[in-house]
Amino acid sequence: MPQFYPIGSAGQPWGAAEKLAWLACQKEQRSYHDDVLVAIEDLRALWDVEQYATITGPAYGGKSYPMMVLRSRPWNDDLPIMLVTGGVHGYETSGVHGALKFAREHATEYVGRANIMVVPCVSAWAYERIHRWNPEAIDPNRNFVADSTAQESAALVRLVAPIRGRVLMHIDLHETTDTDESEFGPAKAARDGAPTYERGVIPDGFYVVGDTENPQGLPFQQAIIEAVRAVTHIAPDDGAGKIIGSPVVAPGVINYPLRELALCAGVTGARYASTTEVYPDSPKVTNELCNQAQVAAVRAAIAYALAHPVPPAPAPAHQ
């Protein structure tokens, strides 16, 4: 069988030795403390900040990562809850910095209208290594279940458990990068024992992922797209009516079964849920433009939810 990834053998799932070999290749390239925790400290005058978990263990190289959530003030239980998450995949940089930029620039915008929760960086270890997985070669964004084997996912599930079914809107900030096909796709195929790997097409532009189980949410997704269109370009389909293999249901909009796939955007059972996807490798954008696109998406999502305040959909129990 052809060897398409330098670790493991095609057709054979990784065992402990292959995962350790992969882990040995992951080097710290930036600082969660300097980039995220310091930025959050500067926001304490505007937000209530609390640590909701500590991520640590042998695979984390002896480091401990405090996981932080920002809550708007004053919190009012009579108001709808809006959740913003970033950095589920640590290498998707504008998810983290877009969330922080939103928190820095728009903290007081919703006083008296909504409760806002912001979790800027769900996966701190992966942020430092510019990677998709955690150190145990687990993708957090397929593991948002109560008994998750990914510490990062389990911690967020515990954080939102008290408000499940009460969240009106949840937007999860992501990127689709060229490395999805040059590194992370082949690594996943090798880890899972696929015999071959065929590269897909990376869409050039911004798009969103809605919920297959909530088709009435399409106007919500379209509102996000229209807001971001004023900031950056929207991804076209691949010529066959698809983006990353999924049918395009409106310009820049595809759907996934969020809860079935245990994706972050499905963790609260919010009536309005969306995953954003920025393309930072486009020659048409800059890092700051990517951050601005994420902020535009968050603000549009909150605005739409406030204008259409239907009761949150009942949140099914985790399986």
TrEMBL record:
Protein name per UniProt: Succinylglutamate desuccinylase / Aspartoacylase family protein
PROSITE patterns (alphabetical): PEPTIDASE_M14
Membership in a protein family: Belongs to the peptidase M14 family.
Chain ranges of the Peptidase M14 domain: 31-319
Lineage per the UniProt record: Eukaryota, Metamonada, Preaxostyla, Paratrimastigidae, Paratrimastix
Species the sequence originates in: Paratrimastix pyriformis
